[in-house]
């Protein structure tokens, strides 16, 4: 059940990231605040891991995302999203999500030309319009969603 709620949250964040290349602080900081309150109230993360595991997950997220943020590869909203995810889960979920996101990026890069030819013309037109509006900035959260989904299936 908890994984489904996190999947829905990541789906909302993905949709917003694809459309606006930005995620609302209400979605990222709101979930982070709820996860932190849950940690203090129960001593466990949202998925049931110990509070210390959530702390380690947050440390891992900071080690993996802050250098990318400093180099301009990640946005602040991506760092906040991953921090909120860390507070709600555990190191296994965080590392699995990063690995799954990397695998998703590679799969997309390898198959996007083939998939593009299979798309409906109306969908192609809409995706081209979205791409032109946003320029070179790549959405990161859809890959995080895929990585989390793969991790949730693997861990469960």
TrEMBL record:
Residue ranges of the TM segments: 26-47, 54-72, 92-110
GO MF term (any one): aspartic-type endopeptidase activity
GO CC list: membrane
InterPro entries: Prepilin_IV_endopep_pep
Keyword match Flavoprotein: no
A family per Pfam: Peptidase_A24
Record keywords, A-Z: Membrane, Transmembrane, Transmembrane helix
All residue ranges annotated as the Prepilin type IV endopeptidase peptidase domain in the record: 4-109
Magnesium found in the keyword field: no
Protein name: Prepilin peptidase
UniProt source species: Pseudomonas plecoglossicida
């Amino acid at each position: 059940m908890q994984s489904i709620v996190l999947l829905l949250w990541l789906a909302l964040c993905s949709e917003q990231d694809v459309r606006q290349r930005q995620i609302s602080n209400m979605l990222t900081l709101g979930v982070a605040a709820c996860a932190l309150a849950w940690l203090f109230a129960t001593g466990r993360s949202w998925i049931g891991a110990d509070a210390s595991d959530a702390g380690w997950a947050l440390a891992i997220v900071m080690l993996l995302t802050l250098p990318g943020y400093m180099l301009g590869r990640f946005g602040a909203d991506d760092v906040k999203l991953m921090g909120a995810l860390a507070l709600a889960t555990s190191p296994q979920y965080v590392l699995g999500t990063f690995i799954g996101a990397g695998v998703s990026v590679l799969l997309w890069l390898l198959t996007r030309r083939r998939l593009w030819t299979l798309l409906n013309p109306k969908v192609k037109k809409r995706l081209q319009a979205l791409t032109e509006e946003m320029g070179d900035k790549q959405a990161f959260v859809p890959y995080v969603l895929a990585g989390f989904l793969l991790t949730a299936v693997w861990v469960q």
